[in-house]
Amino acid sequence: ISSLFRVSEKQATAAQLAAGIAHEIRNPITAIKGFLQLLTGENVGNKIYFEIMHSEIDRIEAILKELMVLAKPSKQKYERINLQVLLEQVVTLMTSQALLNTIQIEKQYDFTNGWILGDSDRLKQVFINYIKNAIEAMPNGGVLRIYGSSLADGQVRISVIDQGSGIPSEILEQIGKPFFTTKENGTGLGMLVSQQIIKEHRGDIYIESDSKGTSIQVKLPLLSQE
Ligand code: ADP
Ligand code: MG
Q: Ranges for the Histidine kinase domain (predicted)?
């Protein structure tokens, strides 16, 4: 059964978000503190302890980096963006990660007009997040498809389609909740951050998923042609 799911806002309250942040950051800090306490006497130079602390600090850094995207004010310098160029830049960035996972990226663009108004760094982040998730959903490799086309209704559609095992419906409902993750080292912020950015650009997100894979579609308003 495939389910098409229009991602709407499931805005977390400030209290829920604060509780999530506190929890997510407290865990690695507790770990770091514990290992610091162990670094005495003959353990003082224990390399493994340092490595664990380092990776925990990296985790805090990753969480804060994603949260900062959410914290950014939505009034920004919007510029004319050619989506095909932007997608190409994102694909180039993600190519090595895809190859390392024996994933082939197939692209297909059908833009009669691919210009939109937006913040290119933030939009790139969205597609990086989706491609990352797609790669992570295909641990045994596969094909990752990226389609872009301009539609007749004044919108543009970008699809990121993977051949992973899909998102069960009970999990689909959780997606976009802050810190919701099914991954051991996930932050559970990628989908939320992406939703926020697409919303700022007055776009919509649709998720379609079954046991053969997942398709994430983003629709954005085209810049009208003068
Ligand atoms: P993270 O990747 O850190 O777990 P995200 O917010 O990016 O956080 O994603 C949240 C969850 O949504 C993932 O843990 C995963 O369960 C699910 N998910 C997102 N994209 C996909 C996909 N393409 N295929 C399967 N599951 C996905
Ligand atoms: Mg992710």
A: 20-224
Residue 59: both structure tokens together? 């985790």
Are the CB atoms for 10 and 177 separated by under 8 Å?
yes
The environment of the single-atom ion ligand 2, i.e. residues with CB closer than 5 A, is 133, 190
Q: Is 189 in the pocket of ligand 1 (CB under 6 A)?
A: yes
Q: How far is the CA of 206 from the centre of ligand 1 (A)?
A: 14
Segment 148-158, tens digit of pLDDT: 999 999 999 99
Nearest atom in ligand 1 to the alpha carbon of residue 182 is 14
Query: What six digits make up the tokens of 24?
Result: 């997510």
Q: Which ligand is nearest to the CA of 186?
A: 1
Angular region, 146: left φ>0, alpha ψ -120 to 50, beta rest: beta
Tokens of 79: 């510029």
Residue 148 pairs in a beta bridge with 109, 158
Amino acid type, 29: I
Q: d(Cα 124, Cα 26) in Å, to the nearest integer?
A: 30
pTM for this model (two decimals) = 0.90
Distance, in Å, from the CA atom of 159 to the CA atom of 178, rounded to the nearest integer, reads 23
Distance CA 37, CA 32 (A): 9
* Type and span of the H or E element at 154: none
Q: 213: helix, coil or strand? A: strand
DSSP state of 151: -
- Name the residue of 181, 197, 207 whose CB sits within 8 Å of the most ligand 1 atoms, as the mutation to test its pocket: 181
Q: Looking at the predicted complex, does its ipTM rise above 0.90?
A: yes
